[in-house]
Amino acid sequence: MTHGRRTDTHDPRFGNGGGWRDTATRYALLPLRIFLGVTFIYAGLDKLTDSAFMKDSGAGSIGDMMRAVRDSSAIPALVDLSLKSPVGFGYAIAFGELAVGIGTLLGLLARLAALGGALISLSLWLTVSWASDPYYYGNDLAYLMAWIPLILAGAPLLSLDAALRSRRRQRSGGYR
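Above: the chain's sequence. Below: its structure in token form.
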């Protein structure tokens, strides 16, 4: 019995030949990964460094924002939950965005990071941007849809996940 590689599957590693279309296909999700990673890192840092945002009340505060969207949200109970501790909720969102952004940008636990990003986007869509009319004016739904390809594909190239996978493959003698 011989062991060999299947040649009818896509090999996402470097240097396997192919034309520019194959290369473009392999790198297709990289711009999305960079955009979402940088955007979520920026969003998390922006919240953490905004002295007005991390307050229970006052102009620009998380508390006032959540109270303002409560009656127009799809799930008012979700807003009520955040209003039990608006500052704690603000920190949870900010640190969640940072973790998602860093994981996505570095490609570390990329599918899990993308799932976290999708859940943050979903919660913001159902609360903060639900009343956007027409619906496509609210950006949280677009972010939710942008996370789905990364949940499905992960970060197969230029990522810590790929490096760890390659290292495991080398340790196991090249078998997947």
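The helical segments are 20-26, 30-49, 62-69, 76-83, 86-106, 110-127, 139-153, 160-171.
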